[in-house]
Amino acid sequence: MRLRLEREPFDYQTLRNNLAWPEHDVRTHVMAGLVVASGAKSILDPAAGDGALEFIADEMGDFERIVVGDISQPNADLMKRVSSGKGWRVTCADINVILEVAPRCDIVVLSEILEHLEDPDHTLRLARDKADLLIASSPVMRPGQMDPNPEHLWQFDADGYIEMIEAAGWRRSHSNILNFPTMYDFQIWVCS
Fold first, then answer.
1. CATH 3.20.20.30 fits 2-6+15-191, yes or no
2. Helix (H, G, I), strand (E, B) or coil at 161
3. 54: number of Cβ within 10 Å
């Protein structure tokens, strides 16, 4: 299932803290571990939020290049400050602009972003041209549940998300659903 939700535009010019919610903290650590386990030497995350995933991965792994960006100027500024001296490339722009101009990397990370985009299919196609691996995550709705998050433009179940990823040319090699007693669960995919 893939459902377009009627939502008002959201102002993303706020500072985010991906580790503020327990379920986001767990998901961020799991995804960072998958990035490290992939053996990738370069990461591209065009919607990195506060960069928590990359900071965790950078502490655990040995990366030659980390390219991050976000549409939020406060988030981009935070990533620049915290990554000072690490050689990260940080950009503040729309996700698709970042994907168009970023260098090719080993892995693209799309963490909790596709449900926010007007055209997630386009973003997945752009990402396909930038890396051989993709690690993506999204909330998964439980049967009969509607997504209450006012920032989300799309609601997916696991099948709808996989269909979208595969239509963009990605092939799923691993998937997992993290179940939480909160608003919704999270699905994570590793694709090539």
1. no
2. helix
3. 28
Residues in the chain: 192
Q: Chain centroid to CA 16: how far? A: 14
32: part of which helix (H) or strand (E)? helix 22-37
- Per-domain residue ranges for the chain? 2-6+15-191
Torsion of Cα atoms, 139 then 141 then 146 then 148, to 10°: -30
Partnered with residue 3 across adjacent β-strands are 155
pLDDT digits (tens, 9 = 90+) for 27-74: 999 999 999 999 999 999 999 999 999 999 999 999 999 999 999 999
Q: What 3 state SS string does 82-104 have?
A: HCCCCCCEEEECCHHHHHHHCCC
